[in-house]
Amino acid sequence: MTAKATTSATFEQDVLQAEGPVLVDFWAAWCGPCRMVAPVLDEIQAENPDKITVLKLNVDENPDLAMKYQITSIPAMKVFNKGQVETTIIGAKPKFALEQDLAAYLG
Predict the structure, then answer these.
(1) Residues with Cβ < 8 Å from 87, sequence gap 6 or more?
(2) Coil, strand or helix at 15
(3) Whole-angstrom distance, CA of residue 74 vs CA of residue 92
(4) Which UniProt keywords apply (predicted)?
(5) What's the pTM value of the predicted model, to 2 decimals?
(6) Catalytic annotation on 34?
(7) Residues 23 and 52 sit within 8 Å (Cβ to Cβ)
(8) 19-68, pLDDT tens digit by residue?
(9) Choosing from 3, 31, 40, 76, which is the catalytic residue?
(10) 75 prior amide bond cis, ω within 30
(11) Which of 38, 51, 50 has its CA nearest to residue 1?
């Protein structure tokens, strides 16, 4: 299962109005670490479909949202809950480290 993409056009509905926590992976096609972390996020989504939703946002195609959420380096992941950013994770990490960062949501 591959994480679904969100865009400037769908962000409000996909993320800000979502029921439950949504992890948004801010990434770009040219970013090596982004490509490394993507399958890990897909695994976390597949193993926790009822606990967290994982969405991808291409920063090159949606620079307005990258600027709004102050994305200065990628990969950057932000967990939104009830429309607010609750957690920010910067950089590619192994699965166990990401699961630790997301423990409050995956518990």
Answers:
(1) 78, 79, 101, 102, 104, 105
(2) helix
(3) 8
(4) Disulfide bond, Electron transport, Redox-active center, Transport
(5) 0.96
(6) yes
(7) yes
(8) 999 999 999 999 999 999 999 999 999 999 999 999 999 999 999 999 99
(9) 31
(10) yes
(11) 38
